[in-house]
Design brief:
alpha+beta; Nucleoside Triphosphate Pyrophosphohydrolase; seven-stranded mixed beta sheet; 7 strands
């Protein structure tokens, strides 16, 4: 775009009311779906994984945000809806932006809420077929989104597990 035209358009944009500017941005900007995922950890470090009825590999509880819902609220809600337990979020989330499917995942770590036993977790949604705890070092084959989220969370925490999972992902993609 010619620099003079660009400046003129920016001056016009600046004069628009805020609501009109937002409409313009939403019209020309790419739209992304936003979801929350939750890695629920047991006291011994085991992770709660789920098998979705529509996916072959293992994943974690999670899903898209409802309109106006905060990502942390969505993570807690999705765990409750999918595996029937309440959790307490731990630490800061990690974020994964996937440009091709235009998806943003906000990834949380969580512990079971006080008074909730690990065996209380059970499939509580038609989406979930199986719920199982796995030792962090012996994870089954993960869904692509879950593996990317696991790597992002591990990197944010500075753990070496991220490199192990990243290498495994690379092998799965090429072989």
């Amino acid at each position: 775009m010619h620099p003079g035209l660009h400046r003129t358009l920016l001056r016009v944009f600046r004069r628009l009311p805020t609501s009109a500017r937002r409409r313009v941005v939403r019209t020309i900007a790419p739209s992304y779906t936003v979801g929350s995922m939750c890695f629920v950890e047991r006291d011994d470090g085991a992770l709660l994984l789920v098998q979705h009825s529509y996916r072959r590999r293992w994943g974690v509880p999670g899903g898209l945000l409802e309109r106006g819902e905060a990502t942390a609220e969505a993570a807690v809600r999705e765990v409750r809806e999918e595996v029937g337990v309440d959790v307490v979020l731990v630490g800061e989330p990690a974020v994964v932006v996937e440009p091709d499917p235009q998806r943003v995942d906000v990834i949380y770590r969580a512990r079971l809420a006080p008074g909730v036993a690990p065996d209380d977790a059970h499939p509580s949604s038609p989406e979930i077929e199986t719920v199982r705890w796995f030792p962090a070092g012996a994870l089954p084959e993960l869904q692509h989104e879950t593996a990317c989220a696991f790597v992002a969370l591990a990197r944010a925490r500075g753990t070496s597990e991220a490199d192990h999972v990243a290498q495994r992902l690379a092998r799965e993609r090429t072989g």
